[in-house]
Amino acid sequence: MIEIIQNIYKLVLGLCVGSFLNVVIFRLPQEISIINPRSFCPNCKNKIIFRENIPIISWILLKGRCSFCGTSINIRYPLIEILTGILFLVFSESSPELYNFNQNLFIENIFSWLFLSILLVISFIDIDYFWVPQSLINFGLLSGFFNLCLIGIYNNNNILSIYLFEGLIASIVSYLFFEIIRISAKVIYKRDALGKGDSKLVSMISIWLGPLGIILSLGISYVIAAVLIIILLKLKKIKKGQMIPFAPFLSIGGLIIWYFGNQPLLRFIYSF
C-alpha cells in the first residue's frame, strides 16, 4: 500500500513538473520570463485561472480549447505532462553509474528528475526551433557540477573527489571532440552537419555521465538516429539532406545510460 502511494506521488509530481516544462518550452524561445506573468492563452492573452491549469484534467474538461476565445489547445501539452509523469515514475528506479549516494534514493531521485527535465525541455525546443538554449546548457552544467561536488562530500567528505575530476575532464574533452567533428564536417560538406548547440549539449551530458557513460551514450544516440532516419527516408517522411534535430537523440542516449548504468549495458553488449 505504501509503495502504491509513493508511486502515485511520483506520478503526480511528474505531471505537475511536466506542466511547468510546457511553460519553459513555450516561453524560453519567445524570450518571456518563465516566472511572470501567470499562465495565459497564447491567442487571446487572457490569464488562465487555477482550475483551468490542472495537469491533464483541465485539458479534458475544457475539451482541448481555451475557455475565453475557444482556440484549440495543442494536444502536445497534456502529452508532455503524461510523458514527464511516467518518466518521473520510471526514473525513480534508475541506476546511474557515476552517482550513488550510499542508497539515499531521495537525493538520487532529485538528481534523476532534474537531469530528465533539462533534457526534455532541450529536446522539444530543438524539435521546434533547431536551437539548444545556452541558458539550459549553463543550468545543466552548473547542476551537474554541484551534484559532483555534493556526492564527493557525501561519500568521501571531500569536495575534490574523483567524481568531480572525471566529470570535468569528460565534459571538456567531449566538447572539443564534437567541435572538431562539427568543424571538419562543415569544411568537407560546405555546410553545417552538426549544430554548435549539439557540442555544448554533449559537454553538459558528459558532466552527468562521466567518460565511459558519454561514450556509451553517443554510441546509442547515433544508432537510434540512424535507424529512425532510415525508416523515415523509406516512408518518405523526410528528404535526403533535410535538417534533423539531434538533441532528442543525444538526450535519449543519455537517459538510457542514466537509467541502466554503464556496467549493465556493457555486459549486455558483450553478451552478443
UniProtKB/TrEMBL annotation:
It is found in: Cell membrane. Its EC number is 2.1.1.-, 3.4.23.43. Its main location: membrane. GO terms for biological process: methylation; signal peptide processing. The keyword Cytoplasm does not apply. Residues 12-91 form the Prepilin peptidase A24 N-terminal domain. Residues 113-230 form the Prepilin type IV endopeptidase peptidase domain. It comes from the Bacteria. One of its GO terms (molecular function) is aspartic-type endopeptidase activity. InterPro entries: Prepilin_IV_endopep_pep, Prepilin_pept_A24_N, Prepilin_peptidase/N-MTase. The chain crosses the membrane at residues 7-28, 75-93, 105-125, 137-155, 162-185, 205-231, 243-261. It is a multi-pass membrane protein. Keywords: Cell membrane, Hydrolase, Membrane, Methyltransferase, Transferase, Transmembrane, Transmembrane helix. One of its GO terms (cellular component) is plasma membrane. Belongs to the peptidase A24 family. This is Leader peptidase (Prepilin peptidase). It comes from Prochlorococcus marinus str. GP2.
